[in-house]
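Protocol check, entry for the methods section draft. Step 1: assemble the input record (protein sequence plus ligand SMILES). Step 2: submit for complex structure prediction. Step 3: store the structure tokens unaltered in the notebook. Ligand used here: adenosine-5'-triphosphate. Step 1 record:
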Amino acid sequence: MTFPVVLTIAGTDPTSGAGLQADCKTITTLGGYAVSAITAVVAQNTQGVSTFEQVDAQLLCAQLDSVRNDTHINAIKIGMLGSTTAIETVHSWIEEFDPSCQPPIVIDPVMVATSGDSLFDPRALDALKNLIKLATVVTPNTSELATLTAQPEANTFAEAIEQGLHLAKELDVHVVVKGGHLGENPVQDAIISSSGTIIERTSHTRVPTHRTHGTGCALSSAIATKLAFQPAGLGAAFTEARAWLQHTIAQADALAFGKGNGPIHHTAHITDEAVTAPARILLAGRDPRQTLAGWWEASTRVRAQIDELRFVMELGTGTLPDERFAYYLQQDALYLREYSKALALAADLAPTLTEQRFWMQGAHTCLIAERQLHDSWLVSRGVEVEDIEPSAITRAYTRHFLNAGRARRYEELIAAVLPCYWVYQDVGDRLNREHNRVDHPYRNWLAAYSDPRFETSTLSARAIVAHHVERAAMRGDEGLIARMYDAFLASCEYERDFFDQAYAADVVLPSVSREVDGLVAANA
Ligand SMILES: Nc1ncnc2c1ncn2[C@@H]1O[C@H](COP(=O)(O)OP(=O)(O)OP(=O)(O)O)[C@@H](O)[C@H]1O
Ligand SMILES: Cc1ncc(CO)c(N)n1
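Step 3, stored output:
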């Protein structure tokens, strides 16, 4: 067996967002071989828990023995146990390991589901604490940490760390302190050693999503899987597991499963662009036009040209003259009106409610929030916004996607608008990382296109387009795939030309007034 075996002992979730099924996905995605024993059968989904029933002690023990009698176990993750009986059953079973070969154990002391429903009998607290003493590491959220330490729930990460230190020493166990419930941004987590020192701290952007069902289950089983590979590397297991988790949370909206607090996208990094694994295998080695990774690769040259444009470089460093930026923004304000119509057409043509909602939201956001960014900059500098002519490039680009939309060619339309997300997010994120500073003259532009919410929308747009490419590939509709691919690449070229136009030889620039202490003073 080349895969380390990771055992999850947990309750179930029929919708696979949390619990045992989610643990198995996590373990598998991270390269382990997942085995499992069910402690409780839970009827739950993204909206909550309706009921659950504990598996009786004998059956739980028999499941555990079935695993141990058949294979070496490299790590154990323990999730929902529910009752004192289940806890004591698992406790006795663990004590049967030869102490020198007991695998690393990660306990996620599940008490309440993400939905707020209780999954734990409070009378079992002492038994749980005794079990935790056998573990390598325990991963309570702030409310579980409060219960375990008999203190009020922490309001700040510093308070949570204090409680974590207390618990680590009391139970002689490593403690992962999680900041998910604190609402702070960035979200902080840390791992504390049993001797009470902080080994590692992590800080991640809080993903603006309500789809966080099962994050605790995923983090603990990811740590167990990392430990199965490297039993001595607890600090690294924690930071690597946490980094993996971030990606799955960032992709949760693209997965868009269920009606409530949807699950994170456990398999995001193996299901390239939401193309399912079997489909990916089927497509592997075929025409690069059949995956978005192939499209992105094909646009490499154009994207490199964008990066080298004088306009883009000066926008990044902040040395771009106001008049050039003003010209670009004027054209972009006109562009946004047409782009919004294209997204509204996509909403009109969308085959599913999810896609319709996504494009409609985009049509609204670009006309209201994004256009506001343009208007405020231009108006405060006395530059005309509406009474101007679209440039030849603005006209050609907008005609490109509107033609597809008006001909009701949905797949081509969404392929043509994808670079408006993807190229902007790529450029915005990079420029912001390299050049962001408080006195940057174009900081609002950098902030808008590097915003995590824009990244989330970009991921959703990519997932939707990828889904349609995949469907076309499954149908063998090569013609449609080729038209989508061409539409995408043409838009990448239009993006380049659009950025470049403020430096065209024959451009007529608007005159810009300079803002002084909030007042506008003409400088021309
Ligand atoms: N919106 C978010 N963005 C980024 N990370 C998050 C977000 N919400 C939670 N996390 C991370 O998810 C992990 C679990 O955190 P949390 O404190 O929510 O645990 P939990 O309550 O056990 O999870 P669950 O929601 O599964 O019950 C932590 O690593 C935390 O930093
Ligand atoms: C079975 C199970 N374990 C853990 C959680 C925590 O999210 C859940 N909802 N369900």
